[in-house]
Design goal:
9 helices; single chain; about 75% helix; mainly alpha
Length: about 250
């Protein structure tokens, strides 16, 4: 799982962070109490703390890789996860914003731009520039467009918020498409592709809840139980980047 260049102390620190993240996310679900609407069991505190742990993990990967060829990749991923936490805080209504959804979309969108930069940069750096990645990206962009139309736009008038949701859906699809393109060419990035796919699925469910009236028991937990592992797999792809670049 971890590059051979890491010391036992460094590996232990990363494993402790991974365990703490899992305890906060899954423990919050197991031991939490359903809210009055039965949309979630996880407390806001454990959800946000789980994301904060991933931010710490992201910057830890950068600290470990900063003198290596994987430095730019891990830096961009750490920044992306940091904006993800900001988006989580905005969506939780804990920032003084007039519209928490727009605030969250903007923060997550910047995070996805960081991820996209990371994947493109590493692909070029490591020579993972095969033509097969472009059809994969096109498929994901088509999925993003269809998902947005079915979940957000179908039967509804155009609005600034729905247009912002389209831009965000295409950013999500680009992230997933580029991650899948890396996995297509280098097997160690299969978990990264899975993580980006889970992130896409999570936000599709969230969009259905926000725009399409989608509702089922514990929908909020389903969103987080796909989003959280998705972000974790993206953050810990630093290991694959270090191995690929010989760090």
């Amino acid at each position: 799982m971890f590059p051979a260049t890491l010391t036992p102390f460094q590996r232990t620190g990363l494993l402790i962070g991974l365990l703490l993240w899992a305890v906060l996310l899954f423990g919050g679900f197991v031991f939490g109490r359903p809210d009055p609407a039965n949309t979630r069991r996880m407390p806001t505190s454990t959800r946000l703390l789980s994301s904060a742990v991933l931010v710490l993990a992201g910057w830890s990967w950068y600290a470990l890789a900063r003198e290596t060829a994987a430095a730019r990749y891990t830096l961009a991923v750490a920044l992306g996860m940091s904006f993800g936490l900001l988006g989580d805080i905005a969506m939780a209504g804990l920032l003084p914003l007039s519209n928490r959804v727009i605030g969250g979309i903007v923060a997550f969108g910047v995070g996805h731009l960081c991820y996209i930069a990371a994947f493109l940069g590493l692909g070029g750096q490591a020579g993972l520039t095969g033509s097969g990645r472009w059809p994969i990206l096109a498929v994901w962009l088509a999925l993003g467009m269809v998902g947005w139309y079915v979940v957000v736009q179908r039967g509804q008038p155009f609005s600034a918020l729905r247009t912002a949701a389209l831009v965000y859906a295409l950013l999500l699809a680009t992230t997933a498409g580029l991650a899948t393109g890396l996995a297509w060419q280098a097997r160690p990035f299969v978990p990264l592709a899975l993580g980006a796919g889970l992130f896409f699925l999570s936000d599709l469910i969230l969009a259905g809840q926000l725009f399409g009236g989608l509702s089922f028991p514990l929908i909020g937990d389903v969103i987080w139980l796909t989003y959280g592992p998705g972000q974790m797999l993206i953050v810990f792809s630093g290991a694959a980047a270090m191995r690929l670049t010989g760090a």
